[in-house]
Hints:
The complex is a heterodimer.
Chain A: E1 2-5, E2 12-15, E3 24-25, E4 32-34, H1 41-60, E5 64-68, E6 71-75, H2 77-86, H3 90-119, H4 127-137, H5 143-157, E7 162-165, H6 167-185, H7 188-199
Antiparallel strand pairs in A: 1-2, 3-4, 5-6, 5-7
Chain B: H1 7-10, E1 12-14, E2 21-23, H2 46-66, E3 70-74, E4 80-82, H3 84-93, H4 97-126, H5 133-146, H6 152-163, E5 165-166, E6 170-174, H7 176-194
Antiparallel strand pairs in B: 1-2, 3-4, 3-6, 5-6
Helix pairs in contact in B: 2-4, 2-7, 3-4, 4-5, 4-7
Amino acid sequence: MSIIVCPACDLAHRLASAPATGRMxxxxxxxxxQRPENAAVxxxxxxxxxxxxxxxxxxxxxxxxxQINGSSRxxxxxxxxLGLYAQGFDSLAALVFLTTVIGPLLxxxxxxxxLIPLWRGRRAPGQGTVLRVFTQVRTWSFxxxxxxGALAALVRLAKFAHITxxxxxxxxxxxxLCLSELISITSPEQLWRWVERSRQ
Amino acid sequence: xxxxxxxxxxxxxxxxxxxxxxxxTPAAHLRCPRCRARLxxxxxxSLAITTALVIxxxxxxxxxxxLPVMTTREFLEADEPDTIMSGVLVLLHSGxxxxxxxxxxxxxxxxxxxxxxxxxxxxxxxxxxxxxxQQRSDLFRMVEFIGRWSMxxxxxxxxxxxxxxxxxxxxxxxxxxxWAFGAVVVLTLLAARTxxxxxxxxxxxxx
Lengths: 200, 207
């Protein structure tokens, strides 16, 4: 018999055994109490590697190419942040860079750093610290918001210029899907369950 | 014992980083035995910090909406400044009303709703009552969920300003409205993070 405390309203729940499936909600405030076991380490590693490849593609190729009056311009994901930097808006550039490049990179990197040794039955040095950093940055990638923002910008440009979507725009869509799935199967509870199981 | 049995009444703490339940009374520098994150019974100075952040974002909300987020400069034409609202109107006139509605909701409705909702939550955390606590809890979760969407316009401006730089023909210059807007988004995201939801449920003491 164990007791879990709701992180959203502090109500204590007595638990005979953790249910294997189904989402448990707090009896008082309906907040999710503990996410169920919903994935294997292998799945998370596969998804993280997939996301890493997509992130590299997204940053290596242009997002869009714009043609107007015979001249053409394109930009990459990092280019969008650099554009703000070039106009003297350093902090805004940092915000865009952090949420579209550094955020996803840290998430994927931290997960792979901890999960690959776990999968081989070992322990990464500084595992606890890395996981703690991960729980801080796990909601920091704004890929889906970025994509809709890009859509709004392109709609405005399409009126007077010819717009060609680049490879990075498509890989960015895939990256968004991949990251949202990855984040949903690597809740802090789930990560620590994997860690504790490997200790036994 | 009166009232619901809570972690506080049992001397149990929950680690917000890894969700472990820990026995112990809140002392300075208490750390989670599992993930070593700092443990607190409630987030320290939650109300004061959140209030400061909400006030700052409410103040910045004004220039974010009044100052141009970008200015379009075209050859032989007058500069054309665009605020967030006029950007929405441009989208509307170019015939893409779904995008216009989307930008309107993400950039104008969401930030305002977030600031108002946080103000309501702060007020009710200061004066805890047992009425409609569930709705307030839901309100907080909504604020957390919609928070990131107001970044949409910042991304749109960054792309426009990067792409439209055609020598002497046309260029887009970022305005301070975009900076203020980005600041509002960050401040409200932080405010949602520093606010301790449990304060909404703590029973007022009658002693």
